[in-house]
Structure formats: C-alpha cells, structure tokens
Design a protein that fits this description.
Blueprint lengths: L13 H11 L12 H9 L2 H15 L3 H25 L2 H9 L3 E5 L2 E5 L9 E4 L8 E13 L1 H4 L5 E3 L17 E2 L4 E13 L5 H10 L7 H32 L2 H15 L3 H19 L2 E3 L3 H6 L4 E4 L11 E6 L6 E2 L10 H10 L8 H9 L11 E3 L7 E7 L7 E7 L1 H8 L3 H15 L4 E10 L14 E9 L6 H10 L3 E5 L4 H11 L5 E4 H5 L3 H7 L3 E5 L3 H13 L4 E5 L5 H6 L2 E5 L5 H6 L2 E3 L4 H41 L8 H18 L24 H27 L4 H23 L6 H6 L3 H19 L1 H6 L7 H25 L12 H5 L1
Parallel strand pairs: 9-17, 9-20, 17-19, 18-19, 20-21, 21-22
Antiparallel strand pairs: 1-2, 1-3, 3-7, 4-5, 4-6, 4-7, 8-22, 10-11, 10-16, 12-13, 13-14, 14-15, 15-16
Helix pairs in contact: 2-4, 3-4, 4-10, 5-7, 8-9, 9-23, 9-24, 10-23, 10-24, 16-23, 23-24, 23-25, 23-26, 24-28, 25-26, 25-30, 26-30
C-alpha cells in the first residue's frame, strides 16, 4: 500500500513500473496449487465406498453374474465421473476471481496513454477510466466528471454510486457515495475519471476477499463418510462370518466345495452393497429433481444438508426484491405521502412533479432510479433541446438540467433533483418547511423507499451561471422509489418459518430501509443490528444477541463471513444467499451456499453449493422441501436394506446351524439382489414427500443416518419377516418335504415378504390404504418386473432346474401371499409404535453415530 501523492504529469516511467512490478509482484491473486483431474480421480478411487463398489462388481464378474457385475460397475463408474467433475469445478473458484480482478487497463506511462494487461498495473500507475471499463486496481480519484461506479460485486447493492476527486482522506470502504476511492473489479457505468493506483493484487479489496476464500473449506459430505463406515463394518463382519462358515462347514461336514458355496452365499447375503449405490443414485437423481425447480446443485453433499437448515441468511436486492426500481409514492407540501397510481395524470400534482423529475434526469438514463423515473413519466419533448447540465458534487448531492420553457420563447426551465436535504438547501426552505419535508422523508424511508427531492426554477437569461446554486428554486416535492418485493417472497418466508427455519436478512442498506423490506417480506421476528454495532461486539456478545436478530443492516463485506461463522458456532445449520464477489467467502463457509444464477458473479457461483437459475427466493424453499424429501427417501431405502438383509442372512445361516441341506446358494442370493437393487434405486427414490415435510422442524445435523432407532426398527422388521420363513422351513423339513419343494416355497414367500417390506417402508406413518394409493409409477414397473422374473423362475423348466426348484404348486403361492399379507398388516400396526422416523433435535440416539 502507498499513500496518495500528486500526479506526475507523465505518469510512471517504464523503468519505474518494471521495478515496482518486480518488487510487488503482478496485479493478480496468489495462485493456489490446483489439483489435476488425474489426482482427484486417484483420491476418489482410494475411498472405501468406491473400492467396495468396484470390488463387488469384480466378485459378481468372477461368479459369472455378468449382468449384476455390469450394473454395479456402471454405478461405480458413474459415481467416479460425477465426483471428479464436481471436484474439478470447485478448483475454478480462485481462477474466476483472478480473471475478474485483472482486466486490461488504460494507463499513462512516460506521458503516453497505453493499454496494458491488468496484471501489469502497479501502485502509482495513473488509470484512465471511461464508461464500460472494469477497474484494474484500488485507486484514489484525482479527476472525475459525472463519474458513477457499479460496486455491486463488492457491496451487493445494485445501484451505482457517484464518485468525486478528493485527497484520499476519510472512510475507505466500497459503496461510499461521493467518495474518492474506486476499487478493483468495479465497473464504470457513466462519466470518466483519472485515478492513481493505491493497492494491487492481494492488497486490494477483492484480493483480501480472495485470500479469505482460499483459506475456507466447504463442509464435508457427512452421509458419504457415514455410509462408507457402515458398509466397511458390514463387509468386515460379513466376510469374517463367511470365512468362519467355510472353515466350520468344511471341517464338520468334510465337503469343502459346499463349504465355499455356503460361505459365498452368506457373504453375499450379509454384504449391503446397496448402501453406496443408494446414496450415489439418490443424490444424483436429487440434483436432477432440484434442477427441474430451476436450482442447480453444484455439490451433491448440499442436498443432504438442505433438510437440516435452521438459518437462511438472505440478501435483499434481487433475492427478496425484483432488482428494479419503481416510482411508488410522491409528496407535496401540506399533504401526506401518496401512492403513485396507474393513472399518473389523475393524481393531483403528481404529474407535474414527475415531469420535473424526468427533466432533471439524464436524457439517456443508465441509473436505475432515472430509468424508473422515465418509465413513470416518459419524456414527450425534444430531448435534443437540453441547453445546460449541472452534475452532482460532493458538497451538493443534486443535479440540474436547463430546458427551453414550453410555449414561452426566451424563457428557460431549470429542473433539479437529488438528496432531499440538498434540494432543501437549493430552495432555501424555512425551518418549518424543512421539518415537514424531513417528516415525510422519514415516513417514506420507514417503508423502505428511497426518496429524491425535486425543485424547479425559471430564468430568462441564457448566460448560464457557474453553479446550480446561483439560481432561485421553488420546491416541487418528493418522489419515492422502491425495489418491489417479489410476489412469491412473503409466502415463501412463511413456509420457511412454518418449517422451523429462521430467515435473516443481511444487507448494506440503511436500517430503516432494511427493516421496512424485511417487514414486507414477513421477516418480523427480531431486531435490527447494524454493521457499526456489530463491529463493537466481541464473539461472546454476538452469540448472545443472535437469537433476537432478524435483520443485519449496513453490513460490510468481511462482516458477512463473521455472521455466518457466528451462526455456525451457535450450532445452527446455515444456508446463505449471495451474488457478488464480496459474498464468496460467506457462501463457501456456509453449510449451504446459494448463489444467484442470473445476476451472480462467476466467483459467487463457483464458491456456492447451489445456484438459483431464476434468482427467485421461492426456489430456495422448493429446494429445501426437495432436500427433505430426498433425505427422507434415503432413510426409507436404508431401513429397507437393513431389514431385507436380516431374513437373507438368517435363511443362509439356518441350515448350517441345524445340519440341514443348504437352502439358498449364490445364484439365489444374486437373483434376490437383482430385485433389491432396482427397488432401492428406483422405487424409494421416486417416493413423494411426506404430508408434513414443510411443517416439521429441521432434523438434527448431528443425528446419524444409521441411528439406534432406525437400526432397531429395521432389525424388528427383518426379524418379523424371518420368523415365519424360518418356521416354514423347519416344519417343511421336519415333515420330510423334498428339498426342491421347500426351497421353492421359502423363496416364493421371501419374495412376497420383500414386497410387503417395500410397501411398509414407502411412508413413515401413513395407513395401509394410504400406502397403496400413494402414486409411484416406478413401483408399478418394478412390481411387474419382479412378477415376470418370479414366473420365469418357477414355471420355465430350465430356470427352475438352475435354481433347483420343485414343480410349481399353487398351494405354495397361496401360502406365500398369506405370509406377505399378514406381515404387511403387522408392520403397519407396529409402525406408529416404532416412530423411528422422528429425529429430535437433542437426544441420546447418536450413540451408534458416535461409534461410526
């Protein structure tokens, strides 16, 4: 950093610039060591979940089950490719920021204007700024003419700010109206200027944001790690039991070939390889479903976190509001503020007031407020007749235009607009007039309205004065402009609050405006904390105040990250919206970063986990609802997997325990697994959301997926399924029924029982009738496919011989249907008692999760 000094007439010399470039380094962000795709792939392949997927596919291939092997290996390949793509995209965060921070620049060196790469700008360079230029470095203005800068990348506020030359003293922060400082990455929207570079690269405002961004790590995908651990445990346990079975069977019975077959069958029955498949498919399909709601998911891990969000920090402009200014009110002396109606001409006094405001605006407006004024009262006069203009100055925030007076030859009309206090100064209002105007301004500002004063004057002399203050003005009134709330926002905020999610607004606006917008949006449960007040608080004091705050106003960029981190420290699960460069650190630090797709910067999008393609706050609520549905369906599928493997493992072990012939071999287990896999991946994924999905509080993010309640309920379901099957097998064998017939009877009953488990786990707590009426097209297709495979297995002789089934006996079919029907009724009766899906925010049900 250097202190501003007077401009040398010729700028820096080439030698001085080269020396400073060598000493300070290029004007760009420090480059991080980006991981190449092959390295990311290596890291992915080393994760146990993917290793198990690939190993499982290899085992099936060795067993000759090619179709099962192809499906499993396909899932593994898809998972690897998807993960590599997502991880590679996250490496682009600093690259996008670096490209933004180093545009080309027009500078003066050796007395010549030359255009250089932004990375070659050094402290002390003279920057020439024109409309449309992206500023290459933080600088202080030494000359400025009607200069307005869009600093929304740093402040989040869409309105450009007026800049004027100055000494470089005073407040040094983006968003300052009338100040002399301009910042790297900002855009010149109008006017021109000359500035001296004061900070480049990592020392600039955007550079400091980049440095904080580089030190942040996004939240780790908890579900993936938890699933990997449980699968690893099951694989180790199942493998150990399988080896023990092989050893005992071979030693006790002497038939080592049957021992190997029995060990393989038990290992396959106990290995829940569906867990990682379910997680991968559900998150991938979840991203697709959320995409249909115009929400792009950049990191699949965010989907699992959506349902746990407890705090939604949202910015104002463009998220809660439409990001367009509109004239909504006017005020005339002696009256109350009035709303602008559709028929402007019909409003007493408003037409003349708006006409004067339009005359005081730019002929070709670029400022959003002037565009709104032109929309409210389009000019009907010759815009080429503008005779003279006076621009805003730091000492007087008002502008004036001089026009020929209509129908009065030789007369000139002066129209002025600007800050109400500046217009009052121009008009020389008396104290009582100023007091009345101030009261009207306060009332309008309290409703979130930006207020401009309007004045007029008339002269007959065309020798224009040096300053607009040299004319005698008449106060015309006030006009109020607002960025309207999106129509969908109040209902969406109410939905969030009904779902136990607090909505908190963070904005750079003044407290009164922020409170008014928050009230319109329905964010009323709390107080307002301003940036200066926040600056005075230590961490403990801030944590104590957080529960009572609804709005953060006048917030500086670095304070957004502090707010997010404070909520995280308080145990909240934080979703954060943003669009500018200044939002990138808080977006990346939040559990769920949500960027705007239309107006958001590349940096914000790359740092976020979710992107709203339509910038609509209502889409966030849809995404949260879908996130909860996806997590619910993952739990249903996992509970089903646990449950279905209990009878599988039991029926594989039962014959060994009683010295009976092996009931199911690897071919039977493989066939059953071919039924279970599509059920988990298709049926449960397509289940619709529960009726109370947005009426219950967020789940505890620390609550494990495989909690004691879930595992207990699954083991209960599996045990209830296993008991009649085991009894059937023992009784049939006791009465010396031929082994092929016993195998066919138990297999049919097991398949029908699996259907009962599917129907019981489709919903947490609906009645049996409701469970049948829940519309799920995939269930119909899967049930038809299961029926077709089952008929082939028991009717077609080659298949029947392969599976060692006896001839089809319709009595067996009736028994199987009866067992399945009774099981379904018992499960529906027990479901409300189990209540396993209820996950309190604080309980002791995380013992297994802690162990995992």
């Amino acid at each position: 950093m250097i202190e501003p000094t007077p401009i040398p007439e010729r700028g820096l010399s080439g030698e001085e610039a080269s020396a400073r470039l060598a000493a300070d380094g290029p004007n760009e962000l420090p480059r991080s060591s980006a991981r190449p795709a092959w390295k990311i792939m290596g890291e992915v392949l080393r994760e146990p979940m993917f290793v198990l997927l690939l190993a499982g596919g290899g085992v099936y291939l060795l067993l000759g089950s090619r179709l099962e092997a192809i499906i499993l290996l396909g899932f593994a390949s898809f998972s690897i490719v998807l993960t590599v793509i997502q991880e590679t995209r996250t490496e682009h965060v600093l690259e996008a920021l670096r490209d933004l921070s180093a545009p080309r620049a027009l500078v003066i060196r050796d007395g010549q204007r030359i255009r250089i790469a932004g990375r070659e700008v050094v402290c002390g360079d003279i920057l020439l700024l024109e409309q449309g230029d992206r500023i290459a470095a933080d600088a202080v203005l030494v000359e400025a003419s009607d200069l307005e800068i869009d600093e929304s990348l740093l402040t989040g506020e869409s309105l450009p700010v007026h800049k004027a030359a100055g000494s470089g003293e005073g407040e040094h922060r983006p968003g300052g109206e009338g100040g002399p400082f301009v910042y790297s990455g900002s855009l010149v929207t109008s006017g021109r200027g000359m500035a001296r570079a004061m900070a480049t690269g990592a020392d600039s405002e955007i550079g400091r944001i980049g440095q904080s961004l580089a030190t942040l790590d996004p939240e780790a995908p908890r579900l993936r790690a938890e699933t990997t651990r449980i699968v690893t445990w099951c694989a180790v346990g199942g493998g150990s039991i399988a080896l023990l079975v092989v050893a005992l069977y071979g030693l006790l019975r002497g038939n080592w070939l049957e021992a190997v077959l029995a060990g393989i069958a038990i290992g396959m029955a106990m290995l829940p390889e569906e867990f990682p498949v379910v997680l991968t498919i559900f998150l991938a399909m979840g991203a697709w479903r959320i995409g249909r709601a115009r929400v792009l998911t950049r990191r699949a891990a965010a989907i699992e976190t959506l349902g746990a969000a407890t705090i939604l920090c949202t910015d104002k402009t463009g998220t809660l509001t439409e990001n367009r200014m509109k004239v909504v009110e006017f005020w005339l002396q002696g009256q109350q503020p009035m709303a602008i109606g559709v028929d402007v001409e019909g409003s007493d006094g408003s037409a003349e007031l708006l006409r004067s405001a339009t005359l005081a605006s730019a002929v070709m407006p670029t400022d959003p407020m002037e565009i709104a004024i032109h929309a409210a009262f389009p000019p009907t006069w010759d815009t080429h007749a503008l005779a003279q203009s006076y621009s805003l100055k730091p000492e007087l925030l008002a502008m004036s235009n001089i026009w020929p007076a209509a129908g009065e030859p030789g007369q000139w009309l002066i129209a002025a607009k600007g800050a109400p206090e500046a217009i009052a100064q121009l008009c020389g209002l008396q104290p009582d007039g100023v007091a009345a105007m101030t009261a009207a301004v306060d009332a309008m500002a309290g409703r979130g309205i930006r207020v401009l004063g309007v004045a007029t004057a008339q002269v007959s002399d065309d020798h224009w004065a040096a300053s607009q203050t040299d004319y005698t003005y008449r106060f015309a009134g006030l006009i109020g402009l607002a960025d309207p709330i999106r129509q969908s926002v109040p209902a969406a905020v109410a939905q969030c609050q009904g779902a136990g999610i607090r909505v908190v607004m963070i904005t750079g606006d003044y407290a009164a405006t922020a409170r008014a917008i928050a009230t319109q949006a329905g964010i009323v449960d709390g107080t307002v904390l301003t940036g200066p007040e926040l600056h005075k608080l230590d961490e403990a004091a801030l944590l104590a105040l957080l529960p009572g705050i609804a709005v953060f106003a006048r917030i500086m960029p670095e304070q957004k990250l502090r707010i997010v981190d404070a909520y995280k420290a308080a145990g909240e699960v934080v979703a954060m919206t943003g669009d500018g460069v200044n939002d990138a650190p808080s977006l990346k630090s939040a559990h769920i970063g949500i960027a705007m797709g239309k107006r958001g910067t590349d940096v914000a999008r790359e740092a976020s986990a979710i992107v709203l393609l339509d910038d609509d706050f209502g889409s966030i609520v849809q995404a949260i609802s879908l996130g909860r549905r996806i997590y619910d369906n993952i739990r249903k599928a996992m509970a089903f997997i646990f449950a279905v493997h209990v009878p599988l493992a039991g029926l594989a072990l039962l014959p060994l325990m009683f010295g009976m012939p092996i009931l199911f071999g690897p071919i039977h287990i493989a066939l059953i697994e071919m039924i279970i896999d599509p059920v988990c991946a298709l049926v449960f994924e397509a289940e619709r959301g529960e009726d109370d999905i947005m009426k219950r509080r967020p789940r505890n993010p620390e609550q494990p997926l495989f909690g004691l309640r879930m595992i207990g309920w699954s083991v209960f379901q599996g045990g209830l399924t296993f008991l009649p099957l085991a009894g059937m097998y023992l009784i049939a064998t006791w009465y010396q029924m031929p082994t092929p017939d016993v195998r066919e009877l138990v297999f049919l009953s097991l398949i029908v029982s699996i259907v009962a488990l599917i129907l019981a786990n489709r919903s947490f707590d609906t009645s049996l009738l409701h469970a049948f009426t829940r519309r799920n097209v995939m269930l119909r297709y899967v049930l038809l496919a299961m029926a077709g495979v089952l008929l082939l297995a028991v009717i077609v002789p080659p298949f029947r011989a392969l599976l060692q089934f006896g001839p089809l006996d319709w009595t067996h079919v009736a028994i199987a249907l009866g067992v399945g029907g009774v099981l379904l009724i018992l499960l529906e009766i027990a479901k409300p008692l189990a209540n396993w899906h209820v996950v309190p925010r604080k309980d002791n049900d995380n013992l297994l999760g802690a162990a995992l």
